[in-house]
Structures are given as structure tokens and as C-alpha cells.
Specification:
There is one protein chain. The protein is of the alpha/beta class. It is built from 8 helices and 10 strands. Helices cover about 35% and strands about 15% of the residues. The chain is globular, with a radius of gyration of 19 Å.
Length: about 270
């Protein structure tokens, strides 16, 4: 919404993607040129215990939005995830690579992509990864902030070292998505920060950028023993659009805002 002054933002309380009738009424009421579907059930581990809820939002909800946009002739930009791949490839995934989701969350997101493509082939589906936003009170901006706050408090920091991702800065993703929405590109695109790193590498980089001296212990995915499986290789590249800035440049900008961001009590 910051990228598009005057845009109308409808949160979950105002409009649920699971309510087809409400969506069908909302579009004529607001008469948008573009709908950005940012809604998702993205609790990856919880989805293993709540598969119905995950599919209701990520698959049926995506279908509801896509169908309604098609009915009213409204451009749709939908956000998906690198989790649609199994992570077994030895290079970054491109748009034409076959999907192979591992867990419930991943499978529900891929099902959403398929349903959108079926009922609204002109929609743009943006796959992205490892999102983090500017610093926010309460640690709501994502992984780097959580790591930095733990470092400030002197807490142990154990991070997986065998999963690779493209750290992606939300303001840049939003700006690029808003730009792509003005064109006629449709289908799936990969839109991420340029370059890949492991999660423990990202943790060390965030601490260094914020000048916090704290140790990071790298662990394996097996040691983490999370309920949901995750792709070891979560790296994306695109043959259709340019990547965002190199992830270290974006992280540097994020860290520059840290001093004006949340206040965290020292341990």
C-alpha cells in the first residue's frame, strides 16, 4: 500500500479469501484495477496438523480470488513460494522446473497456483522466498530482526546451515510487483533477492551489519527436527524477470534502519 498511494487494503478481519461471496461483492464496491493477493496460511509446521485450514486459505482462497478477478476483468497478482520445489536440484530453480512440494504448506500453495492458472490464466503468480521487512516493534519484520534481538539479549543462536534461500527485502519485492502489475506479464515468475545463502550465513551477516558480537551455531535440518519438511535448496532464479538487488545490499539497507527501529532492552 505504501507503493500505491490511494490503494485499498483489506485485511483478514475485513475480508477473508475463504468467503467467495464477500470477495464477489468487494470487487464491484472498490472497482480496483489490480488485486494483490497477499493472504496465505504460512505457518509451515502448523500446517502439518491443520491441513484443511492450509488448503482452505492457500488453495480454495486463491481460487476464490482468481475466479472473482476473472469474472470482473480485474488484473490479479498472487504471491507464492519457493517451497513448491523439493530442493534436490543442484542449481537455482527457474520457472520451468517441475515442482515437487514436500509438506502440507508447500502442497497447498502449489494447488493454489494450479487453480489460479485454471480459472484465470492471465494472472501473474509471483514466487518469492525468505521475506523480511523493515524493523518493527515486537520482532514482526522477519528472520534478521529475530536474530539481532536474540544477539542483543545474549541468547544462544542456533540456525540451520544446510538450507539455502534468497533473502528478499519486502519493500523491494512490493515495488517490483507493483511495476510488473502494470504490464501484461502472466503466469509464474520468480522474484527474489539476487544471490543465495544459508540461514546461518544470513544470521551472521545480520549481526555483523548491526555491529553485534554474537556467535551463531550452525546446525543441520535433521538436528532442527521441525515437523514440516523443508527444501534444502530453496534458491530461485528467473528467466523472465530481473532479480532484485543482491541480498547483502538489501540487508545493509535494512540494518541502516535498525537504529530508528525497535528498542530492545539489553540483557
Amino acid at each position: 500500500m505504501r507503493q500505491l498511494p490511494g490503494a485499498v487494503g483489506l485485511d483478514h478481519a475485513a475480508l477473508s479469501v475463504t468467503d467467495l461471496g464477500a470477495i464477489d461483492a468487494a470487487l464491484p464496491a472498490h472497482q480496483p484495477d489490480v488485486v494483490f493477493n497477499c493472504a496465505a496460511y504460512n505457518a509451515v509446521d502448523a500446517a502439518e496438523l491443520e491441513p484443511d485450514r492450509a488448503y482452505q486459505v492457500n488453495a480454495q482462497g486463491a481460487f476464490n480470488i482468481a475466479l472473482t478477478c476473472a469474472r470482473h476483468g480485474v488484473r490479479l497478482v498472487h504471491f507464492s513460494t519457493n517451497f513448491v520445489f523439493d530442493g534436490a536440484l543442484n542449481r537455482a530453480y527457474i520457472e520451468s522446473d517441475p515442482a515437487g512440494p514436500l509438506g502440507v504448506y508447500a502442497k497447498s500453495k502449489l494447488e493454489g497456483e494450479k487453480l489460479i492458472s485454471m480459472v484465470n490464466p492471465e494472472a501473474l503468480i509471483v514466487r518469492t522466498a525468505a521475506l523480511y521487512a523493515p524493523p518493527a516493534a515486537g520482532g514482526r519484520s522477519g528472520f534478521p530482526q529475530r536474530i539481532v534481538e536474540r544477539g542483543q539479549r545474549g541468547e544462544p543462536i542456533r540456525v540451520v546451515a544446510d538450507q539455502t534461500v534468497n533473502p528478499t527485502y519486502v519493500p523491494e519485492l512490493a515495488a517490483a510487483s507493483a511495476h510488473l502489475a502494470t504490464g501484461d506479464l502472466h503466469g509464474v515468475v520468480h522474484l527474489v533477492g539476487a544471490g543465495c545463502c544459508t540461514w546461518d550465513e544470513l544470521a551472521r551477516a545480520a549481526l555483523a551489519e548491526c555491529h553485534i558480537d554474537a556467535a551463531v551455531e550452525g546446525i543441520t535440518t535433521a538436528e532442527l527436527a521441525a515437523p514440516a519438511p523443508r527444501p534444502l535448496n530453496g534458491c530461485l532464479e528467473s528467466t523472465r524477470v530481473s532479480a532484485l538487488r543482491p541480498w547483502r545490499e538489501s540487508l545493509h539497507e535494512w540494518a541502516a534502519r535498525w537504529g530508528t527501529g525497535p528498542t530492545v532492552r539489553e540483557a
